[in-house]
Write a structure and sequence with these properties.
The structure holds 2 protein chains of 2 kinds. By secondary structure, chain A is mostly beta strands. Chain A has no helices and 11 strands. By secondary structure, chain B is mainly β. Classes of the chains: A mainly beta, B mainly beta. Chains A and B meet through strand 4, strand 5 and strand 9 of A and strand 5 and strand 10 of B.
Chain lengths: 110, 112
């Protein structure tokens, strides 16, 4: 079983819609959770971090964490074509390391 | 802040040659990570350092790979000899503490 799982996509949403990206993890002791955005040919860019259950909002982005269900999600409101990228979920399992999922490719069409 | 700096950005070399990738972490960060990314395997952690000391190199694929961090502002990843299957994008990332990692622009390595 993979430690961090994401649907590879592509997830296609129309401009202006809400994009919902999901991630599950296997290690119950995980404490820190991150979302990275990676444009094609570029490096991963940290966009959100979340440490406690519930929602965390930053502009058009909302991260949601449910430790009981071992589930973390990223909502992108008012999706724009510029949001088209691969979104990587990363989890810190109480070690020095982040475990990355394989990423979900998001396509926002006009 | 300039962010994490990597060089070269692109490297094309022939099989059997030595390749050295370089990284300058963000000033003040105490962790440095080397990753490799391919379409097939995604983002893989190769090795990481804390305060210039290698902590975990279990991701280094073979003895052909080695990494050093002689001081807080410089690290190298060396492949000797290189093979075509080493072709990938190599990222360096740094962090203060163990959480939010910031990635450099990467080095795209092609071994022919």
């Amino acid at each position: 079983q993979k430690e961090v799982e994401q649907n590879s996509g592509p997830l296609s949403v129309p401009e202006g819609a809400i994009a919902s990206l999901n991630c599950t993890y296997s290690d119950r002791v995980s404490q820190s959770f991150f979302w990275y955005r990676q444009y094609s040919g570029k490096s991963p860019e940290l966009i959100m971090s979340i440490y406690s259950n519930g929602d965390k909002e930053d502009g058009r982005f909302t991260a949601q964490l449910n430790k009981a269900s071992q589930y973390v999600s990223l909502l992108i409101r008012d999706s724009q074509p510029s949001d088209s990228a691969t979104y990587l979920c990363a989890v810190n399992t109480n070690t020095d390391k982040l475990i990355f999922g394989t990423g979900t490719r998001l396509q926002v069409f006009p | 802040d300039a962010g994490v700096i990597q060089s070269p950005r692109h490297e094309v070399t022939e099989m059997g040659q030595e390749v050295t990738l370089r990284c300058k972490p963000i000033s003040g960060h105490d962790y440095l990570f080397w990753y490799r990314q391919t379409m097939m395997r995604g983002l893989e952690l190769l090795i990481y350092f804390n305060n210039n000391v290698p902590i975990d190199d279990s991701g280094m694929p073979e003895d052909r790979f080695s990494a050093k961090m002689p001081n807080a502002s410089f690290s190298t990843l060396k492949i000797q000899p290189s093979e075509p299957r080493d072709s990938a994008v190599y990222f360096c990332a740094s962090s203060f503490g163990t959480d939010e990692q910031y990635f450099g622009p990467g080095t795209r390595l092609t071994v022919t």
